[in-house]
Amino acid sequence: MAGMTGAPLTAGIELGGTKAIAVLAEGSRILDRVRVPTEAPETTLGAMIAALDGWQAAGAAISGLGIASFGPLCLDPALPDFGRLTTTPKAGWAGVDLIAPFRRFGLPIALDTDVNGAALAEGRWGAAKGLSVHGYLTIGTGLGGGAVVNGRPLHGLMHPEMGHVRPAIVPDAGFAGICPYHGACLEGLVSGPAIAARAGRPADEIGDDDPIWPVVATELATLVANMLLILSPQRILIGGGVGGRAVLLPHLRAATAQMLGGYLAPVTPDRLNRLITAPALGADAGPLGAVALGEIAAAGPASPTPSA
Fold it and tell me: Does the pLDDT of residue 176 top 90, yes or no?
């Protein structure tokens, strides 16, 4: 199996809270994909291994593998838990090694969070192409945040965990938040399950005129304003099932401007329309994020995590 242009093929695996997707790609062009529900680790990872087995058996010359996963993850190769999920609330997945099962393929491997991967893909092929610093927030089952600086996902002590920032404002007095670790952190307040708990019905059943949206936007603006102040991104992309609601962005831009109070001169009302916006890759941002990680792995030792 070969690509249309003869360019190297890359495999990517997106591990999400509800679904896992394996893709074979030539650049940003996805040639094949396998999608399964995220169940027990051995079942889900087994399906991903079977997909790679099938592609290699069909003659695909895969140059690298990228794994973009829900987290938190240990991404420091100096630590004994490198490559493993850590304090994830996903039942049965804490401590699972995400790299070891794929060493059998003999490929260079890069691992990162799903949202860092999506941010990377948007910088290579999407709405942040050509920018030196950009951020990505995905709001759905949880709230994840990633950042890319000069074409590389941001790492330090670990990866960003933006969803667990505490808002600067007091949430509704009657709602304590649903995060099992922090209660009223942003994930515990504005994720899809949190909105459902607040409103008494699923977020996708809540109308655009419901008063919950300005409240959610104001809480989320705490994070967006801090990202602008700390990282100075040229664009912040808002995706996910909740983040993709068209009603959210106008409220979010207005609330962010109010929080900044005019301090950042480049952040004018007109600029906010381009600075805080939707991603361009849609549902493919996740799997293409894994592909982008695979391309970095194939390129050599400067990858976000060393090859397997």
Answer: no
